[in-house]
Amino acid sequence: MKKTGQSISSPNDILGMNYSVANKSLEHPMQIFPVKRLGAEHDDLKLNIHKNISSASAIRSSIFHKKKNFNDYLPSYYNDFNFDDFINWDDLFPYLKYRIITSSLSDLKQVYQVNEGLEFKLKKGNY
């Protein structure tokens, strides 16, 4: 691979590089135009009050914590969307945990991508 002298360390840089490598292997590769991320980093958890652009992580965090200041960071077609009943991982995890606890090892092994002993780690329950 050609060296560019650019640091490839942020999640977006790594993702973009992998897209580029995969694209190059296509029979008809697309022309790639990198776009620099402006205003917010990939995993910023606070809304950027100085610009009207924020990371999806910051917007989701504001929605989940019932903050009302996130609408300025969304396209206008979300203005009428009701975010009050938004469900997050914390709402669903108790159900997943119950399912893990009540399932047999053989049932867990049938779940997509539960392989190579992962069912034992799930049953051990370090969560």
Structure description:
By secondary structure, the chain is mostly helical. It has five helices and no strands.
Give keywords.
mainly alpha, 127 residues
DSSP, total strands: 0
Instruction: State mean pLDDT (0 to 100 scale).
Output: 85
Number of helices: 5
CA-based gyration radius: 21 Å
Q: What quaternary form is this?
A: single chain
Outline of the structure:
This protein has 127 residues and is an all-alpha fold. It has five helices and no strands.
Question: Topology of this structure?
Answer:
Elements: H1 11-24, H2 56-64, H3 89-102, H4 105-109, H5 118-124
